[in-house]
Amino acid sequence: MGRYNYLSLLRELAVTDFKLKYQGSVAGYLWSLMKPLAIFGVLYLVFTVFVRIGSNIPHYPIYLLIGIVLWTYLADSTTSALRSVVDKGDLIRKVYFPRVIILLASSISALITLMLNLMVIFVFLFALGIGVRLDWLWFFVLILELYLLSLGLSFFLAALYAKYRDFGHIWEVFLQLFFYATPIIYPLTIVPHRFQSLVLLSPASQIIQDSRKVLLGTGVLSSADLLHAPLFLFPYLIPLLILPLGYWYFEKSASRFAEEV
Predict the structure, then answer these.
(1) How many structural domains comprise the chain?
(2) Alpha-carbon dihedral 117, 120, 121, 122, rounded to 10 degrees
C-alpha cells in the first residue's frame, strides 16, 4: 500500500470515527457542542450562585468555558485513543498497514470536535465585547501544544491498553483526580502562593492558564507570571518529550497488537 493510500486510509478512518460518535443520535454533531456547554452551565451555576468562587473573576463565564473546552478535548481524545487499537482489532488482523494511522485518525477526529467547540468560545468572546488582539495568534500555538500532549499520551495509552485492559479504569480515575488538581473551575489565585508554580508545571494547567491570559488579557495568572527560567520551559518541554517516547513505545508494541486485541 503506497503513501497516498495510507493518507486516504487516514482520512477515511478519521471521518468515520467522527461520524460514529454521533451515529443514531437525534442531535448528531450538536452533541459535540452540547456536552461542554452542559458541563459549563452546571458548573457556572454552582460556582457563581452557591459557592461564589467565580463572582470576583472578570468574565468568569468565558474563563470557565475555556478551561472546560480544553480539558474536555484532552480527556475525550486520550480516552478515545486508548481504546482505538482494540476497537480496530478486526481490521488489524485482516489487513496490514502502519498501526500509527489508527492513533492519528482518532486524534484528528477529536481535533475536529475541538475546532467546533473553539468556535463557541470565540462567539462568547465577541458577545462579551472582547476585541480581537494580535496576542490571539499565540492561542493557536497553545492548541498545537495541547494536541502534541494529547497525541503523546495517546501513544502510551493505546499500547498499554492493548496489553493491559486495566489501564482503561486507571486512566478514568486519573482524569477525575487530575481534573480537580487543574485550575479549571477555580482560579489559580485561591491556590496557596507557594503551590501556584507547582500547579503550572503541569502542561494541562499551563495551557489552560496561558490560553485564558491570551484571550482575556489582564487579570489572569499565566506561566510567565509565576515560572522563571529554567522552570519556565518545563511544561512546554513535557509534550515534546512525551510525543517521541510515546511513538517509540507504540511502534515497539505494534507488532504484538494482532495477538493482543
Answers:
(1) 1
(2) 120
- What angle is formed at CA 89 by the lines to CA 84 and CA 95, rounded to 5 degrees? 115
Q: How many of the other CB atoms lie within 10 Å of CB of 251?
A: 14
Q: What is the pLDDT of residues 186-210, one digit of tens each?
A: 888 888 888 888 999 999 999 999 9
Query: DSSP assignment of 130-186, as one string?
Result: ----TTHHHHHHHHHHHHHHHHHHHHHHHHHHHH-THHHHHHHHHHHHHHHHSSSSS
φ and ψ at residue 213, rounded to 5 degrees: -65, -45
Whether this model's pTM surpasses 0.85: yes
Distance CA 203, CA 96 (A): 35
Q: Tell me which residue of 116, 87, 108 sits closest to 15, measured CA to CA.
A: 108
Reduced to 3 states (helix: H, G, I; strand: E, B; else coil), residue 102 is helix
The number of helix segments (H) and strand segments (E) in the chain equals 12, 0
Q: Which residues contact 205 (CB under 8 A, 6 or more apart)?
A: 182, 183, 188, 199, 235
Peptide bond into 230 cis (omega under 30): yes
Domain housing 8: 3-260
For the beta carbon of residue 174, count every other beta carbon within 10 angstroms: 12
Cα gap 103→153, rounded to integer Å = 11
In total, the chain counts a number of residues equal to 261
State the pLDDT at residue 3.
Answer: 61
